[in-house]
Amino acid sequence: MKIYRLALIGFGNVGQGLAHILVERGNWLADRFGVGFQIVAVSDLHKGSCYDPNGLSTSDLLATIRENDSLTAVTAPHRDWDALRTINESNSDIVVEISYTDLKTGEPALTHVHAALQAGKHVVTTNKGPTALRFPELLVLARKNKVEMGVEGTVMSGTPALRMGMEMLAGAKVTSVQGILNGTTNYILTQMENGADYDEALAEAQQKGYAEADPSGDVDGHDAAGKVVILANLLMELPLTMEDVSCEGITRLTSNDIKSASAAGERWKLIGTVKKATTGVTASVEPRRIPLSHPLASIAGATNAITYSTDLLGDVTLVGPGAGRIETGYALLEDMLAIHRNHST
Ligand code: HSE
After folding, report:
1. What CATH number is given to the structural domain containing 56?
2. Is residue 146 annotated as part of the catalytic site, yes or no?
3. What is the pLDDT of residues 186-205, one digit of tens each?
4. Which of 85, 86, 257, 276 could form a disulfide bond with 43, CB atoms 3.0-4.6 angstroms apart?
């Protein structure tokens, strides 16, 4: 059986989601795919860090976090290593980069990803910062070092939106993409339609693990704009940057706006679009009031949806979870299993 040693950089919602999956599915993964994923190191800016070259107990990590929201009580031979030391000096094979997202500089995740690839380690990440800002250059570095960079969870959490576009629809040529690309805002809009107020709905989205560490990136549309940039770069060969996406979030929408749309048989949705046309490329994130008959109108809660318009197949739509601890943790597992498929022979 092939065992991959993991170093987790960050241990918030997504890292804990992955840890839960590994605890629950570890034996099945071994039986089904002949693979094991062993966490050897965790380094989190706020919760502390621990490293044991022989492996940490994943269930102990989760229990300690549940009790103390800190890793200081975990028994391990090495403690207090910062992220870069953990990446460079641990015996990890895969670096799981799940520190917080910064869509302006990509840091500190960009430095982490760079260091890991440079050190010849595979990277799996759900971090939109490095992916939206520097993916092409990171991919070159990964290829040079014969390792992989998995980014499936940067768009629509574990719903395989990127693989679907990059692998299954590549030959059909994706000419435009449109969708609901942020779970937090879709959850808030759905709850507001059901009578909740904005602050209450946002607090619930945070509590359920949908929102970013700083939720302003969700509600001001920048998280969805980052996903538009990722989709444009990875699926459509369009080297867009964040500045190319016109972006408006949901903060100007009031309960009255939502009620009056409802009364008219319509619904507000935050919609991200990127479109290639003979006249150029358009990319946007904006709240739109759409009729209930629109294909995106029925997408509720933290569910997301994406429609790929292609030359050969017409429209193909994928609907699935857009955020959440387990849902996003699962995206990391998808990328880790892809590494196993590609590197185990
Ligand atoms: N905060 C993001 C969302 C998480 O709500 O969609 C998934 O990228």
Report:
1. 3.40.50.720
2. no
3. 999 999 999 999 999 999 99
4. 86
